[in-house]
Write a structure and sequence with these properties.
By secondary structure, this protein is an alpha+beta fold. Helix content is 39%, strand content 27%. The protein folds into 3 domains: 9-136 and 316-334, ATPase, nucleotide binding domain (Nucleotidyltransferase, domain 5, 2-Layer Sandwich), CATH 3.30.420.40; 145-180 and 255-309, ATPase, nucleotide binding domain (Nucleotidyltransferase, domain 5, 2-Layer Sandwich); 182-250, ATPase, substrate binding domain, subdomain 4 (Actin, Chain A, domain 4, Alpha-Beta Complex), CATH 3.90.640.10. The strands form 5 sheets. The protein has a 5-stranded mixed beta sheet, with helices on both faces. The protein has a 5-stranded mixed beta sheet with strand order 13-12-11-17-18, sandwiched between helices. The longest helix has 25 residues, at 244-268.
């Protein structure tokens, strides 16, 4: 049966690795990997989300499991639209009214990339689409009062992009977005294992290594993990033990790229706001900030206290959800 009444207001964190959706009054209702499995012959979508992620690197020739978002932006428009449609239908059920949707975007996207997100969400069944910058959504989700005239610095490390922003009076004063984040960490691990051990591993194994023993700051005790990959000399499967000290070697380069970007944003920040940040500290959000020791590394290099937000992974989605409360005002402003 159709549900009567207005469509729900939905906030979507359209991440490179994960899509998290928030419904006004209900909280987070969906958390799925942004992966779609498509039949390359018929172009039919076979699976979306968790089911499709299980197929990554394990599909026959005619089935392609892809991630339609790369580095924070849409790389495959048609597949993104189908993915959004699937998620919006799953959340909204069979209501007569289409929902209003607020979607997060990286802070430095082009007008063309913004339009692609709006068009995809509209085609997927949204009545009206609003965009919010990721660092602002992350700051709201982390419980920061962004409306006050004082500086807050947010470093949001997602799957595809790291967004760094200094926020005051509800807007970004100084910001940057770099394409070094969770996915790039995985790439560096794959390269390192290939170079050091002569073994080829997949994205998922690299991600498991990053989550379980990955670190960017020396650990007191060296952790270890067994992994399997394909030996590049014999071509046969081989099992090896990898240590967290090796992960430190693999991940320090991309981690330092993030630290350098934070440094350059701080250099451009007006002195009054820089003083506020020095007092309050830097807030880190997003799944990528959970790599062991990243907060310690940033604190050591900047000399500023660094805090990881509660529920860092969901911060952007929670912030988008809280921003939904202002949708009516935005709607009126749009008219």
């Amino acid at each position: 049966m159709f549900k009567f009444g207005l469509g729900q207001d939905i906030g979507i964190d359209l991440g490179t690795a994960t899509v998290i959706a928030y419904v006004k009054g209900k909280g987070i209702v969906l958390r799925e990997p942004s992966v779609v499995a498509v039949d390359s012959n018929t172009k039919e979508v076979l699976a979306v989300g968790q089911e499709a992620r299980r197929m990554l690197g394990r599909t026959p020739g005619n089935i392609v499991a892809t991630r339609p978002l790369r580095e924070g932006v849409i790389s495959d428009y048609t597949v993104t639209e189908k993915m959004l449609k699937y998620f919006i239908n799953k959340i909204n059920g069979r209501t007569l009214f289409a929902p209003r949707t607020m979607i997060c975007i990286p802070s430095r996207v082009t007008e063309v990339e913004k339009k692609a997100v709006i068009d995809a969400a509209t085609q997927a069944g949204s009545r009206k689409v609003f965009l919010i910058e990721e660092p602002i959504a992350a700051a709201i989700g982390a419980g920061i009062d962004i409306a006050k005239p004082c500086g807050n610095m947010v470093v949001d490390i997602g799957g595809g992009t790291t967004d760094i922003a200094v926020i005051s009076l509800g807007g970004s004063v100084e910001s940057t977005s770099l394409k070094v984040a969770g996915d790039k960490f995985d790439e560096y691990i794959v390269k390192y294992i290939k170079k050091k051990h002569n073994i080829m591993i997949g994205e998922r194994t690299a991600e498991d290594l990053k989550i379980n023993i990955g670190c960017v700051y020396p650990k007191i005790q060296d952790a270890e993990m067994e992994i399997r990959g394909r030996d590049l000399i014999t071509g046969l499967p081989r099992t090896i033990t990898v240590y967290s000290s090796e992960m430190l070697e693999a991940l320090i380069e991309p981690a330092m790229m993030i630290v350098d970007s934070v440094h350059s944003v701080l250099e451009k920040t007006p002195p009054e706001l820089a003083a506020d940040i020095s007092d309050k500290g830097i807030y880190m959000t997003g799944g990528g900030c959970l790599v062991d020791g990243l907060d310690k590394l940033l604190q050591e290099k900047t000399g500023i206290n660094v805090m990881i937000a509660n529920d860092a992974v969901s911060c952007v989605a929670l912030g988008t959800g809280k921003a939904l409360d202002n949708l009516d005002a935005l709607d009126r402003a749009g008219r």
